[in-house]
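TEACHING EXERCISE
Course module: macromolecular assemblies
Task: Read the component lines below, then compare them to the predicted structure of the full complex.
Student: A.B.
Group: 4
Components provided:
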Amino acid sequence: MKNEKKNLIGHLAGWITWKRFLFSVILIFFLTSILFPFYWMVSSSFKTKAEIGGREPVYVPASLRLDAFKELFDPSNPSFQDFGQNIMNTLKVSIPTAIIAVILAVLGSYAIARLHFKGKNILLNGVLLVYLFPGVLLIIPLFAMLAQVGDKLGFSVQDNLGILVFTYLSQTLPVALYMLTNYFRTIPDEIEQAALIDGCSRLDVIWRVTLPLSIPALVSVSIYTFMIAWNEFLYALIFLNDHDMFTMPIKINTIFNDPSPRPNVVMAASTIMTIPIIILFLALEKYLAEGLTAGGVKG
Amino acid sequence: MSVAVKKRKRGMRAKESRLAWALISPTALIVFGLVIFPAIFSIWVSFHDVGLHNLNDVFHAPWVGFENYARVIEDYAFKFQGFNNMGAAVTTVIYSFSATTLAILVGIAASLLLNRPFKGRGIARAIFLFPYVAPIVSVAFVWRWILDPRPSGVLNDILMSLGLIQEPVAYLATRGLSLLIVILLDAWRYFPFCMLMILARLQAIDGKLYEAAKMDGANAVQQFFTITLPELRYVIGATFLLRLMWTFNKFDDIFLYTGGGFGTKVLPVLTYEFSFKLYDFGRGAATAMMLLLVLALFLAVYVTVVMKNVED
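Instructor-supplied answer key:
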């Protein structure tokens, strides 16, 4: 026993050098400062009102109490928030955004990557420059413009999830186009040429040759566009007024600003919003990390 | 080449070009219709008196010239009135430059850390990206809850039990301190982006350079300054500019952390307030135009310096 212990310490003493010690300390510092907020979010969501409002913070909740989640989901709760509706609204916005953006971007980036036409570079650079435009600059004219159009065509701009999808497309298409164009350029042209000579049409080639070869890129682009729409705050804040139409970010903001503060409920809702994103990210990290450097998520 | 072949070839070209435009036009229409046109339209709005009352008839809004701009510049929320009350213009510059610089510095440190092989490096890299991929709304509210000004706020509790502070601090509701905290939070959230960009470049550096330096007797610090840093110069520059542009027109973060109070009001938040709190769209657009002007400047630098270097 004693001998073993000595060995362990001896082993540790042999392993540790100043360099390694410093390295470990810095690594641990990074990991704690990154992970602690996430721990605090998840653990707070299981705390009771008493644990949240006490004189001292509760570092570990006594048990996994679902008080906060009941307020979000249980209709019999006195301050029921109907968060399920907000999750649905978010999905109703983010899934169509992802699907439409990927379809349109596939067509557009194929044209840019493979076909010759005048104005191609101007178009690509223009779309990229657009990506650097601030959302807050566009929101005023968009609001005025869409209100005008909506008035003429007889639809409401406010509380219209379809309009929201439309505006999200303008934010996601540039990235999607950029990422897919880069990817298509890496697929050897010869394969497609062979299919063309075999008598396939261009659309056939896209469907049967290019797309099956681009699955990794398609996955990461759709996840990105999904995430952008899932997280979007400013446009949703301005275009949505009706509580039943709120997406998750706006709802969480509303619960936070409630006169009676209930951080456990805010944290529970935030946890629900964050977990799927983290899981998606971890599951597809291999593809996604590369896309991040291509400006995948503007932030 | 015979005329017929030439003609056919030209026909193919035209066909290809038609197909290309057909494929790209939905994307182009949405992007230009919802971005380029609004951007131009917002110039128009900034010279007109547009409010809620005439929003439905916006094209007949009265022309007011530079009045909106004058009212922005004269506004107490905008102009510099001393270091206690810096106004949105100066705050934006301080905020975006320091947050970007800090994010880059932390990003360099993190990428050097992850460039060394160790057990669990893959997991560590994934975790390092969490702050950047997590939704800003969740992140902002967790931090507000951690920084809670009551003695029960967890940071207050930790610092008080360590004896570092005597009284609980209102981190996000104290002039000066709030700006610093928001900058730190910004670095926390955005360093992973810088890290990824820099890490990709780090891994492409030729190992022979370090071997040669070692032969010459250079130590780790010397190697960093003579090899690593010069090799990273362009990627750091490009990342800095990109992040600077994004931070410069960032709305969500500050709006969620402080609502623009306590000396943290930046131009995007001011734009929002003019437009959607006071419903003075003209003044809001004028503020946004000032943002755009600075952005155009950054962009010009980006295109001329960075894109050129990338091509080289």
